[in-house]
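Re: that chain you flagged

S.,

Sorry for the slow reply, it's been a week of failed gels. I finally had a moment to sit down with the sequence you sent. For the record, here it is as I used it:
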Amino acid sequence: MYYRAEQILSAYPKEFTGNMKGRGSILCTDRDGIYLLKEYTGSVRRLELLEETLRYLKEQGFLAEELVRTSEGTLLYTDIDGISYFLRKTFQGRECDTRNTEEILCVTRHMAKLHCLLAGFRPASGAQGEVLFTVPQSLAQKHTRELKKVKNYVRAKKKKNEFESEFLQGYEHYMEQAEKVLEMEKMQCVPEGSVQLCHGDFNQHNLLFTRDGLAVVGFEKIRYDLCVSDLTNFMRKILEKHNWSSGLGMDMVMAYNSVRELAPWELCQLYLKLLYPEKFWKIVNHYYNARKTWVSLRDIEKLTRLSEQEIKREEFLSMLFYLIK
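Prediction finished late last night. Pasting the C-alpha cells below so you have them in one place:
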C-alpha cells in the first residue's frame, strides 16, 4: 500500500506535500492539515453513514474527522487489484495518557457527551441496517461455547504445554463467571429502543489531545449498540493497565454518570460486561486459532498476568455490584 500511495492520492482534489507509513494506514499532509488513507472492506452505504455522522458531530461543535471524496465524488477509491481505500482528514495530537487519572476521567466524560449527541442523531442515509448490532447474550454465549471447545481440545491432548496447563488451571474459575453472566442476562430486560450509534472502538489510541481540544477519531467500527459497550471497552483497557484499581474504576463510572446518567439496567449491563472473562477468552482464542507447533511466550505471559490481577478485578466487581442492588 505504501508504494501505491502517490497513485491513490492523485485521485483526490488535494495537493499533498508528503506521505509516510502510519499504523495500518498512510499519513499524508497538505496545507490544510493531516489525512489518513486506509484500506476499506465494508459497503459504500456504511461509509455514507459514517460521513453523515461525522458531519453531524462537527455541526454540534464536536471535534470530528471528515471523509474526503475523490475528484469523481466517490467515497471509495478502488485500485487495479480491486482493493478499496478511503481518505479522512484527521487531527494532529497526542494520545490519551493511560497513566494520567485526570486525562482518563476527562476522556470518560467526553465519551458520555458523545453518546448524548449521537442519541439525537437521525441519519438519512438509510444504511442503519448495515451497521452491526450484537445482542449481549449472543456474544457471551458464542464466546462461552468457544471456551468449552478449547477445553475439550486441550484435555484430549496427551502432552500439554505450559500454556495449556495454565489454561486448564484457570478454566473453571473463569467459566464460573461466564455461566453467571449467562444466567443473569436471562433475567435482564433491555428497554426497547435503547440501542443507538456508538463509537465501537473507544480506546486510548482513538483519543487525541490537540491544540483545539480533545478529538475522538477512528469511527470506522461505528455501530448500533448499548452505550455501556463503549464504556466497558474503555474501562477494561484502562483498568487492566492499573491493576483493576477499584478507586479508579468507580471514578470512571461516576465521571460518565456526571454527564449522562446511567439507568439502573445500564449499570447492570456494565457489571455483566465487565464480569464476563473477555480477556481470558481473547487470549485463549488467539492460542486456539494459531494452531502452531510452538506456543507464543507472550500468550503465556498474558495468561499469567491475568491470573495475578484476578483478585483486584474481583474486588472492583464486588464494589460495582453494590450499585446495581
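What I noticed first: The radius of gyration is 22 Å.

Talk soon,
D.
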